[in-house]
Input
Amino acid sequence: GWEKLFSERIFLAFNKNYNIPVAVARYHNIYGPEGTWNGGREKAPAAICRKVITGTDSIEIWGDGEQTRSFLFIDECIEATRRLMQSDFTGPVNIGSEEMVSINQLVDIACSIENKNLRKIHVDGPTGVRGRNSNNDLVREKLGWDYSMTLKQGIEKT
Output
């Protein structure tokens, strides 16, 4: 976290001191088709989709599954980024969804799309912070952008 914040400060200093155009975006859990889906480096939506598609009776979830996140479909991320790059706003600005779900709910969404009923098995594993969500007030104000795709719609496309 500190590395990201420090990098933002450096970019904004170059903008101020040398008139170098910059735009700072803070992306929140971007996902979609063509992303990494296996190997341990994938995002939660891709990992959950893979586990649901290949699962037969159960699915392993790290921790209790109650940790919350918001996820943004890649097409919407690209549109927000395009608007930021075409604006005079330097940021920083959040680019994400405000639809907060637990990992257990994400599993339920993926299972409903595949018409599966998998038993959730909670195992030890990295869970990150308990909850994280995007606040989009500033991006709506400065760029006139807001997400429109629900998580279920994005998971169906993924």
Notes: The longest strand covers residues 58-62.
